[in-house]
User: Fold these one by one.
Assistant:
Number 1:
Amino acid sequence: MSDTDLLFTPATQAAARIRQKKISPVEYLDTVLKAAEKAAPTLNCFREVMAEEARRDAKRAEEAVMRGEPLGPLHGVPVSIKDLVDVKGVPTRHGSAIFDGNPPAVADDILVKRLRAAGAIIFAKATTPEFGNKGLTDGPSFGVTRNPWNLARTPGGSSGGGAAAVAAGLGPLSLGTDGAGSVRGPASCSGLVGLKPTLGVVPYDTTRDAFGNNIYAGPLSRTITDAAVMHSVMAGPSEKDPWALSSAGQRPLSPRLSGEDLSGVRIGYVERCANPRIATDVRANTRAALTAWEALGAEIEEVTETIDWIEYEGRVLYQAGFAVSFAQYLSQWQNQMDPVTLAFMQRGDKFTLADFRNAQFARTVLFRKIQSLFERYDFIVTPTNARTALDVTHDAANDDVIIDGVKCGITRQGWTSYQYPFNLTGHPAMAVPSGFGDDGLPTSVQIVGKYQAETDVLRLGALLERVRPWAQHRPEKFRAA
């Protein structure tokens, strides 16, 4: 197997070959590290590479194979971690100059612990914009992370470093977080699978507002199976997360999805949320995905009723949270913070307590509306983004998103409006590739399921993957505009 083929081997296949002693964890990691070093100046997708620690762990993984020890489902597989999540012995910088001098974390985050227990080799911290603040990945403290499909475009945000890495073959898996679409958006931009789980299925121990949480952790991968395995490794209760502690866990696979006949499965298609337009190529690829499911027997119905997607109220919750959480840093760090962070904080500071409480009430109304849709449908399907990846120079706070020559508002209004509603309602939502746009960049479709129905969401995605495969596509090394 060539180094390139090894880099683009799915995680589950690599783990199987490691168990069969056909791949050495040490040689596998070395191949990834060499590729990461070569790509670093171009993609800028890692904030730190822990080569020494990862080589130590890979050697131990190889020794465990040779001794015939029980091996986890990700044994010997290199995995990167978003720089909002603690990895023992490495600073967590949160994409910000404020934390450039942070001391190394004293312990792994619970999800990192679970990944290690499954045999994963944690080898890098992936870039994120400051505090995960936007749908692009750049910032004053580390520069610009670029999309391997086109270096002039963003890989999305805020899990853009991990998405760029996986798309470029720098580890088959990355752990992302999703506060308003930050796993699904990068998956859409980068031609990947990105799963945001149900609220409480995967713990998020580090959020400051555990009870009002809208932040999730999920996998970025090139295949559905890889996403499913990584998700299963991370799922489960945690004493520090009240939603995870009380979660009913995941539902078993619905019997109607056990085969490839989708007769009786109903899909509600939402073409637009708060966005005024959808790009022609994105619409065509989304409808092609719907047609593929329909050919397997699914009933497709467009959702035509009016739904308030609470873009304004979602913005109140998001920006007011920034204003309160990061006000403590302004006096010392304002000149070194991302201008987008500062703009969001300034806007958030103008909202009143009444605005904030009314936004919370609106979140409940939206949840109940989505629940009512699931009385009719097994799934809701939307595009993931309204167009392909934006230029890396796009100003997320002020610039209009342009679709087919028309200005459509800032990113959450014109580009990512399909994503944040399901952070607020808590339903599982997964981005899967739907094809390529007219500009040669990936497009994506979003599958939304019932609470705790991740297995069904993954299965519907797997059926699309079978009839419209995508993992065979690889970015040219690396294409410029």
Number 2:
Amino acid sequence: MLKTFPKGGVHPPENKLTTDKQIEVLPIPKQVIIPIAQHIGAPAKVIVNKKDEIKTGQIIAESGGFVSANIHSSVSGTVLRIDNIADASGYKRTAVVINVEGDEWDEDIERGESLKKECNFGKNEILKKIQDAGIVGLGGATFPTHVKLLPPKGMKAEVLIINGVECEPYLTADHRLMLEKGEEILIGTEILMKALGVNKAVIGIENNKPDVISYLTSISKNYTGISVVALKIKYPQGGEKQLIKAVTGREVPSGELPIFVGAVVHNVGTVFAVYEAVQKNKPLFERIVTVTGKSLADPKNLLVRIGTPVKDLIEFAGGLPEDTGKVISGGPMMGKALNSTESTVTKGTSGILVLPKTDSKRKEIKPCIRCAKCVGVCPMGLEPFLLMTLAEKTLYERIEKEDVTDCIECGSCSYICPSDRPLLDYIRLGKSAVGALRRARSMK
């Protein structure tokens, strides 16, 4: 019997249009706009100036604290300006604009496709390489990877879980990466095991990827302590806490981190980036992005330099269809609609989804009929209808007591609601307000 998590979950149409599309390299743009806040935590601090000549892979902004990440140039060229530019959310934030001139890489980066299996570095050296490379979680959360590899005092990692689920509809970037870079991912897994001091790693993959499960199972036999587990197809199987429960049977308590139950979770894209950083000295300046949509002429999986305008990806996939209603960064369940296709790819950009008008219009909001479907599908055991009501009425201290911060923002409640109520929108508002309350308390 296939493993899964016990609470809630939904089954949205998969729409994996690009499953069989091999990864292609997107041509380098003429100009990149690289935001310096591409991760959870403190923004990086710019260390370059206007007119500086930059190489591909060169650091342009240093980590702004322990929970932060370095930012590197994805191109070679000249810094045009350092400015406040609207990001994917529409807010203006500091970014470095670089005019591209050729593609000269930093001399420390080892280029080429040759597989490098042996890792002779110790734990501290591995951690430093990962931190220097600016690696963050590539599953969407963008939490600095080196922080996850340093458990709090008194806690110890027992198992490393590699997230190869990719349960979000439409997205196939991780699927293709596992098929095309399987050996590198397993070597990266070994490196992370060494950094954590664990002897067991499990790669969790949903059963809609039989080719990946078969391939990684066969090659993992050559790697001690690494196993592959097939999981039932159910959204949001890729949520950290849901994946831990499915794979290990352990439940992360409310308000606690995975390390509380001895687990550390990393996305397969992150693992590949770790391999490149440790074995090739390559910083994180490019990633795989799925560009997809039912009306798109030629959906693709692309290797994209950070800072590339979204419009370039869409043009490479056949251009923006006439019936476009929304362009979403990410997938349809957890992604965010873009204000403009001028916004650029960041470390957290897993996909660009072009939705037709028929699929992107909000339906008329109707009164709650107390059906409790939202409660039944919530993977965290929350009561979304109540959380929305409390957020509407600005009862933020009450919503805090109802564990609103446990919400993983998967969107299952909004998806299932027969009254088309914007449950997740209000829950996000409530989470944000509770976060502000807690920050205010801590400053007293």
Number 3:
Amino acid sequence: MKKIKCLSLCSGGLDSILAIKILEKNGIRVQPISFVSYFFDAEAAKRACKQLGIKLRIEDISEKHLRIVKNPKHGHGNAYNPCIDCHKMMLIETKRIMNKEGYDFIATGEVIGQRPMSQNRNALELIEKKAGLKGKIIRPLSLKLLPEIEAEKRGLINREGFYDISGRSRTIQIELAKEFGIKDYPSPAGGCILTENNYGKILSNLFRIKPNANGNDCLIVRRGRVFFEGNVLIVVARNHEECTALELLMKRGDIVLKPDFPGPTVIVRSFTKNPKEELIEKGIEYILKYSKNVPDDFAIELVK
């Protein structure tokens, strides 16, 4: 008999780990898939799949995702998170792979009622319909609470082997983790960085000043304290890691300054034509402001 196989969206969280284990328990060959963009990576998914002994497939959707973040058809959430449009895009990308490579269906670790914006019944039905996947997605943790799907009609799965979990409590999932011998899994998180209010405000200002902001712009505002002065962006590193990151992210026209005393690297990026001397002075001002002990005799390097 043909081995049933599916693509399972994997974030690396407990729910997506359990979805994989439940599918495997039902005799299905699972290929975990994770997406990366300017706003999230696949590190948690990598750790989860290493624990499970399964190779993770990673797809880069950075540019497509950035366009959605700027202009989501279904709007943003409480911060700058376009959860419905983002999830729909991931499913469309997964569907493309499913159709091209002969997978039988798609699985997710979604739990009914766990996330108010993207995991209520109406949102799930809307996303399925818009992605052209109505009845083609299996949600192992909540399948018994949902309408019959195509895989059941085709006799590929039997819902008795799945679950009826709903709501935000993780009690049942934690018990299942024990049953499956899963010991290492992350604590519940609010979502990607786009769900953080402060980062949402920063992006809103960035896109207002520079509507065609690119991935590099979105990345540098994650690497320190962020300030806007007119059409000038200033980012002040908070630690050694961010100092290094700002240097790596600098591009032509940027002013990057490093003090010869313990203090932050600063990047100054202008979205209009400003005198170079003015931008350097602005950068020095922020270095001195966020340095604790400035010596009487000091130098500041202009990184080239």
Number 4:
Amino acid sequence: MTLRSAPAAPFDGAIAAARTCYSPRVVGAHEVTDRQRDSIGALTFDAGHHTVYQHAHFEFGLENVSRQFVWTFLHSHPFYNSEQSSQRYVKLREPRAFVPPLAGEALRVYEDAIVRAWDRYAELGDYLKADALTILKELRYVRPTTAAARMQQVEREAEKKAIETARYVIPIAAFTSMVHTVSGIVLHRLRRMVNSGDAPLETRAVVNEMVRLVTDLDPLFFEKVGPAPLQPGEIPETAFPRPRADAAMFATRFDARLGTRVSRLRDASPDAEAVVADAVRAVFGLLPEDMSDDEAVARVMDPARNPYRLDVLNVSHHSPLMRALHHAHYVFEKRLSHTADSQDQRHRMVPASRPLMLFADAAEPDFVTPRLIARNPRAAAVYQAAMREAWDAKNRLLALDVPLEFALYVLPNATALRFVESGSLLALLHKWTLRTCFNAQEEIYLASMDEIEQVGALHPRIGRHLGPPCVIRNGLVSPRCTEGTHFCGVPVWRDFPAAVRRL
């Protein structure tokens, strides 16, 4: 852990911001006195006036933290920014993973499971690269006369596609690295909630180090304000029963509701189109006889009439017109793998009620299989074996009285997660535009396609304007594709949504 950047005096900066509220000028941090630190600090914090602690931002460099910790805690809320090493594009050449405090047979079982998963990852990568290369040669129009440099580029792309899929067998204990930035008030909240989530031991280690680094910089930031961390017995989630015996039944019933879908529309604003139209008219002081519902919805949704839809810098939340989309809301039930959901949760304006794995553990393998693996018999056999091995290791650790918190770490990225997710049309519109692109992660792409299909059937005036950038931009602005040299190779705009995604 490193503290890459931070304000020189974050606590005094907060007090100065509070004083500015009652001053005709901006108060500087250098003007803060000891008396003000004692009086204003506690007064603002204890009264809930926390925005003054949001001005200070702390940029951390994190290495050797697990994917499980990041998913269950660090990225489980919307108030952060991260740039994280990608398993989709960075080959994992050696086993590097979190190891909890175990000994004897339990430690051997745990470490063997980690190493075995890496071996399976290497096997799958070899099998899948040939399949990916065959498809990419067609998509990239590779011919016997293709230049060697171009062929090498396609081969590198095929390897990336192979490891992107092979990573599903990697355990959620796998290490990752990132640059992670939070505000001062969020750091206080992380400290308060340090015993929550599925990985409290690792969470305490990481957050305590964050707090130590900030305290070394400015001892007053935690000394003067802020409550102590909630203890396990004080966290409401710990009072719920852990129905391990019923986890399989929950999964069965949830999947029955999904049917063949990855994501199912659970609820929606019934008059979404009329509500959006009313909101558009409210912005401009118009009556229905001045602007019909059809016209109002088209003005905000149709990229031919609303150039904000074509802007690669998402300014939707800053546009008075686009904010009319806040008032239509959609709720989905969905099933994603742990690795796909780790990416899906980065859409922070589309929150979800994600499972606590400590409560949803099942004895039998429960996982998602990527299509590239399912189509290759040899890869599928390796994959099935890897899933069985992971769950056998987890169950063996439990039989050795290892806490479930630690045993869960050996489960694979493929582990299935079931949850409820919702968002405003404004937030979902941005997500759907990015994630219906053929370059999007496969599961999130499939979920997004499910979602826009169901929304379009319910609200056709909205649905007809949903799709990836190349569809939205087609005929209006150049280039159609915003991916540059990463163009998928398929003219999706000619036949959306029927265009077939082969990778």
